[in-house]
């Protein structure tokens, strides 16, 4: 579990994740890239490139799609307070009502229109199952910031901390 082979090397995904987590924690604590690189045994340029790969640019337009969420009104209020340009935050019942209100062709058209609309935003926060987020990332690319609230299928409403939600919005919008 968590192992893969590249040529003659047997690599551990868990070990790699721990190293990356350590690098990020050291950088968050304020250490310079050079010192972090020395501590983990790599070049400073690797630390810089790693940060660049994971960077979410601040500013720009923001859309949020999230479901199934328990505290919809509370999250919509936070969304409005921070000037989020588009938000579709639903509980499980609302999600199914939307799906059942369309026939197959109209549902597909609605989804395609939604995807086209989302492509116009600089950032899209997608809150949902691991599968839904992977799908959004595949379709919309790097503009998606995924917040996984469970493994697919999620069959009940999930509570999302408004403070965590607020912090995510602020980290993207830069306000």
Keywords:
about 180 residues, alpha/beta, Rossmann fold, 4-stranded parallel β-sheet, 8 helices, 6 strands, about 55% helix, globular
Topology:
Layout: E1 3-6, E2 9-12, H1 13-28, H2 33-40, H3 44-54, E3 62-66, H4 72-81, E4 86-89, H5 92-100, H6 104-119, E5 123-129, H7 130-140, E6 144-150, H8 162-173
Parallel strand pairs: 3-4, 3-5, 5-6
Antiparallel strand pairs: 1-2
Care to describe what's here?
With 175 residues, this protein is an alpha/beta fold. The chain has two domains: 3-54; 62-173, Rossmann fold (3-Layer(aba) Sandwich), CATH 3.40.50. It is built from eight helices and six strands, in the order E-E-H-H-H-E-H-E-H-H-E-H-E-H. The protein has helices spanning 13-28, 33-40, 44-54, 72-81, 92-100, 104-119, 130-140, 162-173; strands spanning 3-6, 9-12, 62-66, 86-89, 123-129, 144-150. The protein has a four-stranded parallel β-sheet with strand order 4-3-5-6, with helices on both faces. Helix 1 runs antiparallel to helix 2 and helix 2 (33-40) crosses helix 3 (44-54). The longest helix has 16 residues, at 13-28. The chain is globular. The mean pLDDT is 93.
